[in-house]
């Protein structure tokens, strides 16, 4: 028997890092008894103080009352002993370091220590959840809950199914997320990077190829997308902020070994390798696409992108989104919700496609694909059949 939503009273969070403490704070404020577990006593004490600080900011911003946060602190407990932390847990969220082997070891321990009816979730941005499920004796009770940072402020949670996850379990997890006052979107297949991060990749990658080929400049593209299309950041500014250069280059080998469906091509743009080899990883190294040695923000003129067609960036994103719908990974609505809540985009890719027409997206996408000159990257960029059909029939996604 698997725990149902009405029976969930006690939530355990494994890992007291930034994500774990944020998830715990949200769950306790929503009225659940929460245990935070970590092997490091100092980390637990830091988590306690950090949660107090976060709750204080919530009161200052009128997001919660003092009585509510006082009650939430009473519902929180902190333990170094894993067995004790999960002994009475109904729902466990693992939020440890983002390493497959570490998480698999934790899930083996959780499977032994947690009640047999408990649901086990992992907070991961792209690791293989199916493999985590298969180290347990309860693979149908394991799923992913990808929270966005910081959990107290970000509204979105991706709920990820594996081939073992029944509808009843994912529905319980989604309802729990809603009880936490967050918005769940469902990733129906355990694909690399799930939904939001799959959209982020073409947002950063195609512009890198354009700069590498000398077709457009960094500032031209960033200005067009930031000021013209009203994204929070242009693709290069965002890459520097997130450290995407290092993540993409170092992650290429891992994707090559990954045999999950819809796995990414590992044809990384040479521009990223050139920056990586120079140690230009982004803001954290004072240089990435831009130089930050004497400034905190890149210099991106407002009018620099007036001659750039933003559909050259949008088209590969829409294509990636359409692939997800075509392959049953996500719905149109969930993809757009993910883009807006997880990426803070001004609109979702399908909303953009409906705004300009699928035929316009198809035209730009064909142009982008042709520039890759018969490489594997060209095949990856070619329009999927769903997008082609929408364009042929003049149909919208909504």
Automatic annotation (TrEMBL):
It holds the Pfam family 3HCDH. It comes from the Archaea. InterPro entries: 3-OHacyl-CoA_DH_NAD-bd, 3HC_DH_C, 6-PGluconate_DH-like_C_sf, 6PGD_dom2, NAD(P)-bd_dom_sf. Residues 194-292, 314-390 form the 3-hydroxyacyl-CoA dehydrogenase C-terminal domain. Residues 11-190 form the 3-hydroxyacyl-CoA dehydrogenase NAD binding domain. One of its GO terms (molecular function) is oxidoreductase activity, acting on the CH-OH group of donors, NAD or NADP as acceptor. GO terms for biological process: fatty acid metabolic process. Gene3D superfamilies: N-(1-d-carboxylethyl)-l-norvaline Dehydrogenase, domain 2, NAD(P)-binding Rossmann-like Domain. Keywords: Oxidoreductase. This is 3-hydroxyacyl-CoA dehydrogenase. It comes from Halovenus aranensis. The lineage of its organism: Archaea, Methanobacteriati, Methanobacteriota, Stenosarchaea group, Halobacteria.
């Amino acid at each position: 028997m698997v725990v149902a939503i009405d029976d969930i009273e006690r939530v355990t969070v494994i890992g007291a890092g930034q994500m774990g403490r944020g998830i715990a704070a949200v769950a306790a404020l929503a009225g659940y008894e929460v245990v935070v577990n970590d092997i490091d006593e100092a980390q637990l004490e830091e988590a306690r103080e950090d949660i107090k600080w976060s709750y204080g900011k919530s009161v200052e911003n009128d997001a919660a009352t003092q009585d509510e946060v006082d009650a939430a602190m009473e519902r929180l407990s902190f333990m170094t002993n894993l067995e004790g932390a999960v002994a009475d847990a109904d729902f466990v969220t693992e939020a440890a370091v983002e390493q497959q082997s570490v998480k698999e070891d934790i899930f083996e321990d959780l499977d032994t220590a947690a009640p047999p009816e408990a649901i086990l979730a992992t907070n991961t941005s792209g690791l293989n959840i199916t493999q985590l499920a298969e180290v347990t004796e309860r693979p149908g009770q394991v799923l992913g809950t990808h929270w966005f940072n910081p959990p107290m402020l970000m509204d979105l949670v991706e709920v990820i199914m594996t081939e073992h996850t029944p509808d009843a379990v994912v529905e319980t997890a989604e309802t729990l997320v809603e009880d936490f006052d967050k918005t769940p979107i469902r990733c129906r297949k355990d694909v690399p990077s799930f939904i939001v991060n799959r959209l982020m990749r073409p947002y950063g990658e195609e512009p890198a190829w354009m700069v590498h080929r000398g077709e457009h400049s960094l500032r031209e593209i960033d200005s067009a997308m930031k000021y013209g299309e009203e994204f929070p950041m242009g693709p290069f500014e965002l890459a520097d902020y997130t450290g995407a250069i290092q993540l993409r280059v170092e992650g290429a080998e891992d994707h090559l070994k990954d045999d999950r469906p819809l796995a990414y091509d590992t044809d990384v743009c040479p521009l990223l390798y050139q920056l990586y080899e120079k140690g230009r990883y982004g803001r954290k190294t004072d240089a990435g696409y831009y130089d930050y040695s004497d400034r905190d923000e890149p210099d991106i003129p407002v009018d620099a992108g007036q001659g750039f067609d933003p559909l050259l960036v949008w088209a590969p994103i829409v294509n990636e989104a359409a692939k997800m719908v075509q392959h049953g990974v996500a719905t149109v609505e969930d993809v757009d919700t993910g883009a807006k809540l997880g990426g803070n985009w001004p609109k979702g890719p399908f909303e953009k496609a409906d705004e300009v027409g699928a035929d316009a997206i198809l035209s730009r996408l064909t142009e982008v694909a042709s520039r890759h000159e018969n490489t594997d990257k060209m095949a990856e960029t070619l329009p999927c059949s769903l997008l082609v059909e929408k364009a042929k029939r003049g149909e919208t996604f909504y």
